[in-house]
Design goal:
Blueprint (H helix, E strand, L loop, with lengths): L11 H9 L5 H14 L1 H23 L5 H30 L6 H22 L1 H8 L7 H21 L3 H8 L3 H12 L3 H32 L11 H7 L10 H41 L1
Length: about 290
């Protein structure tokens, strides 16, 4: 189980690791995250495999159900639930590794169970904008409402999401309750919002690029092996290159293959994002400690 750590009680392992990351360069964070991922792939790979199986089952179940707004909302909520559970579990493992502890999937699950109520409550609060957005009517919005959303709602939403992005590590590492975790995340981000914003954007771009490369690469392989039915030889490459951007419907064997490849790529890259955010959290926490100790 993770121990609650005071700034004055940080281990030598943590101090040395954070000192290495204190410049907060995007390349440093990604390099460290990938290193942690590969060195502990047995644990993270198992989590990614669980994610893939659960999400693939969800996709398969709702694929055969009639299109209905109520079912679509249920599908989205189940998808989000699976995602946040896997994300939280990855944070537990990354934090344990960061403190120099040997961890297993079973131990990580046990630790996550102890923090689950606070983590889930924080996630619900963090997800309120998305929940409200899913409940909006699908009719065309007026031009005035569209302008308001574009110039006011989106910037406020982005600011909100970045300010609270560390709620997961705060709950897992510091044992904060839901509201305290969100407040603590906001305090950590204060004064460094833009730095964190660009780091997060860079991490997301990196991950999306990996997902696209993996999906397209395996899609092309399956296409050349003749598994992409109903796709002519002349349009195979164009179809596969476009498919990752248009997977809203599965209307053929080819699109089904591309959809499940996309799920697999997302499962594979999710630990990278969780590890990166966790390392960024420790980096910001250490810098705050140095500032307050002067």
């Amino acid at each position: 189980m993770l121990e609650q750590q005071d700034f004055s009680q940080l281990s030598n392992t943590e101090t040395n690791t954070v000192y290495h990351l204190q410049l907060k360069r995007l390349t440093d964070i990604l390099d460290a995250a990938l290193s942690v991922y590969w060195r502990h792939f047995r644990v993270f790979g198992a989590i990614a495999a669980i994610y893939f199986v659960l999400d693939a089952l969800r996709e398969g179940i709702f694929l055969f159900l009639a299109e209905n707004k109520g079912l679509n909302i249920l599908d989205e909520n189940i998808e989000n639930l699976i995602s946040i559970l896997v994300y939280g579990l990855c944070i537990v493992v990354a934090s344990e590794i960061y403190f120099g502890k040997t961890t297993t999937l079973q131990n990580a699950i046990r630790c996550f169970q102890n923090r689950f109520s606070s983590y889930f409550g924080s996630t619900i609060i963090y997800s309120i904008p998305f929940i409200l957005l899913s409940l909006l009517p699908e009719e065309d919005y007026s031009e005035i409402l569209a302008v308001i959303v574009l110039f006011i709602g989106i910037p406020i939403g982005i600011y909100y999401l970045i300010s609270l992005i560390f709620y997961g590590p705060v709950v897992i590492v510091e044992g904060k309750m839901s509201s305290d975790a969100l407040r603590r995340s906001r305090d950590l981000v204060r004064g460094t919002w833009w730095k964190i914003f660009w780091r997060v954007i860079g991490i997301l771009v990196f991950i999306v690029t990996i997902e696209y490369i993996l999906t397209v690469s395996f899609g092309l392989l399956f296409a050349f092996l003749g598994l992409m039915h109903k796709v002519s030889a002349g349009s195979t490459i164009i179809y596969v290159l476009q498919a990752p951007f248009d997977l809203s419907r599965i209307d053929s064997v080819a699109s089904a293959i591309m959809r499940f490849l996309d799920i697999g790529a997302n499962a594979f890259t999710t630990p990278i994002f969780a590890i990166s955010v966790t390392l960024l959290y420790f980096d910001i926490r250490f810098l705050m400690r140095r500032m307050t100790s002067r």
